[in-house]
Structures are given as C-alpha cells and as structure tokens.
Amino acid sequence: MSTSYFEKNPVVFYNHGTSSLPIGKGKDLRYEPDGSITLDIDFDQEDEQALAVQKKAERGFLNACSVGIDVLETSADEAVLIAGQTRPTVTRCELLELSICGIPGNRNALRLNGIQTENIEHILPQINQQEKVKLNMKPAFDSFDLPETAAEENILEQLAALEESDPDTTDPILARLDAIDKKIAELSATKSAKIASKEPRLSDLMKDLRKQVAPKQEMTWEKLQKLSDAEFETYRIEHPENYNRLFYGHYGFEPRY
C-alpha cells in the first residue's frame, strides 16, 4: 500500500462520509516491523461530530477503522490467494482516506476508487467470470449489416470499405472489430480451408487501420478514468509510454506489472 497521496492530504472521515467534511487528519504515520501501517488521529476540536466520534472512541464505543483505497494492481495467481477466495487479491494500492467506523468490513465500510462495494464487480470481478460469459457478436455483425452466419470474406469486404472512409468516423467501431476478429478466429479454427487462406487476416487490416487513425485529442488521466474497463485496458496495452507518463504524473511513481 502506497501512502504518498494520503501523506499529502491525510483526511479522516466517519463511516467513509467523503461527501461531508472530514472529522480530523492523520499524523505520525508509521510503517511497523510486522508490515502494518499505523498513525495517530488529530480530531477537529471545533467540529461537533468530530468531538462526538473522538469521545466515543476514547470510551470504547467505537473501536474500528477502515481505509479508502485506489486499486493499482490485482492478481488471481494461486500464490496470493487463500482457500475459498472468489475475487483477485489487491497486490498494490494507494491509500486515499481513513475512516472511523462502527462496523468495519460491512458493505459501506470499504470503498475502492470511491465506488461502494455493491459495485465491486467493476474493479474486482469474480475469478474465472470470463469463462461464464459468452461472446455476443450480434451488435458487431449488425454494425456491418451482416448476419451472424456471415463468412470471413463478407467481413473483409466491409472492412475494406471502412478503410476508405474518414478516419474520424472509425474510432467508434474499432472496439467491435476486436470482437469480430475473435469470431473469425473461432470460425477459422473449425475450417482448415480458412487457415490456409491467403486472404489477409482481419487483425492485420485492423493494425493498418489504427496506424491511419490519429488521436483526436491528447489523453489525460481524468479521461482515462472515464473509459470503460475494456477501453482502459486497450489504451494501456496499445499506448504503454503515454500510459506510464500519465500514471507517473498522477501517482508520482512508475506502474509495476
């Protein structure tokens, strides 16, 4: 857990009420020999709620705290999983805020990226969930006005026409092309004739098309955060230098994979 962001802005809330004013601030943050992180809390003496929380903590009526974190890396490797674990392990994160809580670990006690845990699927999807999801190709084929039974040649013809179009109109369909290429790979695997075909693969044409499509505007970290998970991952893979630069500018250290 990185604490560099928190140490610049060590806010403390009650029950993760980040939309309200903080009740105090953290101080004297320490990395203990056992790997834990501890700190003291300076409660706001001019805030009624802060004083009430402080008094209940001192009298033993509030005994727990919880962290708000930004997930940076996760892993489903067996080496970092425990028996019965259904979601990947967070291997790197950034501490954003600390909260005094009545019940730690309830569905509103842990916040990831500012998202409540009822929406945790966006960040920590169920392990092997992808195996349960079937690829829905209908929207992709509909975009080319083709039936789901269309042959590869039909798709290549449509793509060739797309290459002649204005590059500014191609971005919305590039994501669908990835899905179509997967479908073609499935079709090719079942037809030896397709494997031996000398026709260019859709993935090769897509690479050429992407080279011709210039970015519309400079990407920023804020814009990246607004992308869907799939779009975010695609940008990270296809533009590693820009992603690393934006990551460093936001967090102050290089991403590690």
In short:
37% of the residues lie in helices and 19% in strands. The chain has 257 residues and is α/β, with parallel strands linked by helices. The protein has a seven-stranded mixed beta sheet with strand order 3-2-1-5-4-6-7.
What is the terminal separation in angstroms? 15 Å
Percent in strands: 15-25%
> How many structural domains does the protein architecture include?
3
Query: How much helical structure, as a percent, in the residues?
Result: 25-40%
Your description of this structure?
This protein has 257 residues and is α/β, with parallel strands linked by helices. It folds into 3 domains: 4-126, no CATH class; 138-212, no CATH class; 221-251, no CATH class. The protein is 37% helix and 19% strand. It contains 10 helices and 7 strands. The chain has a 7-stranded mixed β-sheet with strand order 3-2-1-5-4-6-7. A hairpin with a 5-residue loop joins β2 and β3. α5 packs antiparallel against α7 and α9 packs across α10. The radius of gyration is 25 Å and the shape is elongated. The two termini are 15 Å apart. The model is unreliable at 106-115, 130-135 and 192-197 (pLDDT under 50).
